[in-house]
Structures are given as structure tokens and as C-alpha cells.
Amino acid sequence: MNYALASLAIPFTVALLTLLLQRRSEANPIVPAITVLATAVSLVFAGLALETQAVSGAVSHLNVGGWDSPLAIRLRLTPLKALLLGFVALIHLLTGLYAWRAKPKIARDYWPLSALLHTSLAALILSADIFNLYVTLELLSLSAVALVCLSGPKAYTPALYYLLLSLGASLCYLMGVAVIYGQYGVLDMTVLAGIMEADHSTRFALLLMTAGLMLKGALWPLHLWLPEAHTYAPTPVSALLSGLVVKGPLFILWQLWNNLAPEALAREMGPLFAAGGVVALVSGGWSAFRAPFIKTLVAYSTVAQLGYALMGLGLLLFLQERIYAVALWLFVLAHGLAKVSMFLAAGEMQTLLGSKRVTAMRGATQTIPITMSAFAIAGISLIGMPPTGGFLAKWSLLEPLFTQANHWPWASGVLLGTFVSAAYVFRAIALGFYQAPMSREPRHFDRVSQWLALLPALLVGLMAFAGQDLIAWMAGVTQT
Amino acid sequence: MSPELLYLVVGATIWAVGLGGLLLVHHMLRRVIAVNLMGSGVFLVLVALAARSSPPDPVLQALVVTGLVVAISATAFAVRLASARAQHSSGTPEVERPGGDES
Predict the structure, then answer these.
(1) Neighbouring residues of A423: CB distance < 8 A, sequence distance ≥ 6
(2) Same-domain status, A388 and A294
(3) Is A221 an 8 Å CB contact of chain B?
(4) Domain span at A188
(5) If you write DSSP's letter for every residue of A98-117 in order, what string do you get?
(6) ipTM > 0.90 (yes/no)
């Protein structure tokens, strides 16, 4: 637990410290260095927490300030939560390194805000109290919206829509919390898990909370704010938003339905989630296929890919088999890494090719091969082709579906999603293999930032080599 | 009808009115107010739930205080963002979403 707390406290301290350091001078050159270094330390602590937690398989609790229930704010650490802490720190580290190198320079407020985003995600992961989760959700949205605003006046409109919708969504969630507390008089998730009953007011509360979380997590059909907000944000911010921010509400949704909800209600809800996932895959994929701009393509692909996660959740609730939990979290990890790589590559292409359009990628394999490989490897993982993490995730989703004949609609849904993903990814990659136009020589060529865009893609590729071991290990981690 | 039940119903109604406003109204400042109405509705429900027991449930009152802090900071941010957006987009604060729907 102490390691996990350190992983939470470090970014928080850094956020405050960087705010103070930046007060006087215009842009303090130490600030990015401090933030990136602290993120690395936070990653190490999350790794230590995961090691102790996964080895013992134990679940630890902490009552903040020593208060006892019901006033206590309880933190809870499970192996999965430790893994997610590490994942959050890793993605922050990768994007932080890129933002440090980025040309043109990113706004100086990026550093304290991204540290705050890291803090709120870590707090969201550790909280075991449905009201405290509301507070962390608000923190997460506020820092995410502030980060979107960094790209200047053109981002204000999408940022404001994002803010208002997510405030409304939080209040839907809070209304659900009020109904639950009114009925059971408890806010702690571990206590609630044992006592919830399948009656009307519980169902109403869960639906309210689900609607709020689905809007915040951009899960179909409540995803409409996402493409604009993710497109207009600065490149490292888009990577953080797609890779991490939408996964926070998803994690709460998972805990809500998997741990809290009575099994009868969960079984009812499962097919709806899974069907929503299939529609998200197809409609998001189609919009990505039609997208005129590179970043819009990547943003719509997030909508589509979240469909896989929603399907994993729906099938888990419906069929009650543990393997779908493994599939769901493998998706989150693989998608996070691939999407960071893809957004960073898209940002690099915008700077190097001098155009935001997908058609500008013509001949990119010859002019900017490293960036193009990042885009391609990440894309292959999104489609779910071997040897990538995306393939592992999809395989653990498909394998149990293939063994039973009556699950064919779900299996064909996954395959249809694969087909659509392949369409939008290959549309972009194919353009890269055309003859490069001679006049368009890249202007400033920063090898390091190109490699930084490739790095997450290589990591998601490496996931495949762990293969069966990784699936078995994840099965243990997602148990609690 | 007991006073607690009355407050519960009023709170839920205010929340629903706020939700409707957020979804149907296009003027940005009105939407910010709609979100605030939703917040006030939830807080009223929480306080009404607290009043069911005597003495009133302190946990719920603590939740309302925390919620108020969150609401005021979020509102401040939203108002600032709305005014910055209005300044940068041709002056009027009543700009519709580009290509947005009518109602």
C-alpha cells in the first residue's frame, strides 16, 4: 500500500511544485525534466506495488486519516489496481518524454496539468468509495478539459462542450450515488458488494451511474463529444486523453457491474453492453474510414476500439466467464499503448508533412519511415493482427466464443469489427506506400521524437511475445 | 406528504429540469446554469435524505459540502472558458455550434 501511495503522492507534489516554479519566469527549463523524472519514479513505485501485491495476491485497505466507517475515505489496492497504476505512469512517462522534445514547444502549463491528471487517475484507481470516485471523476475531467484548452482559442468550443457534458454526466453519477446511499446507507464498495439487491431503486441508481460513466468514457452511444475534443487537443494531450482518460470511467463501470451489481441485474445488462460494443466498432470504424484528417481518424478509432472493451464487459456480465475480464484489461493495455503511438505519430506527420489531411500521408514510407512504422505497428495492433498485444486481447475474447456454437452472433460482431478496423488502418498505410511527391521534403527532422513515437508501438508488439504467460498472469491479476 | 418526501421530490425535479436544460438549451451560459441546477437538485436530495433520521446524518451533509466545493470550482472554470470562447468567436456569446442542429 505504501508504494501505491507514493505513486499517487509523487505526481501530486510535482504538480504543486511546478506551478510554484513557473510563477515567475516565462518558461522554466527545469520543469519538464522534473516532471518526467518524477513520473519515472512514480512508475518504479507502481511496479514495486504490483510486485508485492501480485506475489502475495493480497488486497490491502487504508482508511485515510484513521477514520472509521462510514466517515472514512477508504483506499483499496488489488493486483489489477497496481497494474493500472503502473500503466498510467508508463503512458505519462512516454508522452512526457515526447512533449519534452516536441517542436513547436508545448505550452508550459502542460506540465502541472499533466501531473494533476496523473494524480487524479491514480486516486480514481485507488478509491474504494463511490462518493470519492465522484470527486476523482470531476478532478479527472477538469484537468483533461484544461489540457485540451492548451492548443488555444480554436480548442475552446470543443473543450467547453466536453466540460459541460462531463459535468452533467458527473451529476447523473452523483444522483445514482444518492439513491444508493438513501437505500443502503453505505458508500464503501466492498461493503456494498455484499448487500445490494436486485430491486427497482438499485436498478435505477445503477442505470443513472452507468449513463454518466458511459458519457465520460465516450462509450457508444454517448461518444459524440470525443472526436472533436481529441482532435483539437495538442498532440501529447490527445495521446493522454485517448490512452488513459476514457479508461478511468471504464474502470469504475467495470467495478460497478462486476463487483457491486447483483448477478441478476448484471446478466440483464450484459447483452446491452455487448451489443453497444458491436455498434461502436462498426459505426466508429466507418467514421474513421471516412475521416478527412489524420487526427480525426485516430480519434474515431478510439470510439471504435472502446467497443471491444464494452463487448468484453458485456460478455463478462452475460456469460460470467473470467476470461472476458482478461480480454477487457488486455484491450485497455494494448489500446493505450497503440493509441499513444498512433497519436504521437499523427502529430509528427502533421509537423513534418505540413498538412493535417490523411491524403498528405502519400509516400510517407519514403520520407518519414520511422514515424510511418510507428503508425503502422500501432494500427496492426488496433486491427488485432499477430504479433501484437491487440491480437492477444482479441484472441482471449474470440477463443471462448468459438467453442460454443450459439455464440456465433458475438463472434461475427468481433470479426466485423476487425474488418472495419482493417479498412481504416490500411487506407492510411496504403497511402504511405505510394510514390512520394518530390517537392515535399520534410522540414525539420527530429529523429529522437520519431523514435519516441515508435517506442509504445514496439512495447505493444513485445506484449505478444509474452503470449500465453501474459494471459495466464492477467487471469490471476483480474481475480479480485 | 411528509416534508422530507416533498424535498426529495422537489430535488429530483430540479435535477431533471437541469438535465433537460443541459441537453436542449444551446446558449452556453444557460447550459452552465443548467448544470448548476442539476447540482442543486442532487444536493437537495442528499440533504432531504439526511433529514430522515434525527439527528440528521452527518455523512450526507459532509458529501454536500464536498460537492459544493467541486461545483463552485467547476462553475468558475466553465464560466471562464465560455467567456474566453465568446471573446474569440466573433464577439457574441450566443454562437451556435458550427453546423449544429436547430431546436
Answers:
(1) A285, A289
(2) yes
(3) no
(4) 156-260
(5) HHHH-SSPPPTTHHHHHHHH
(6) no
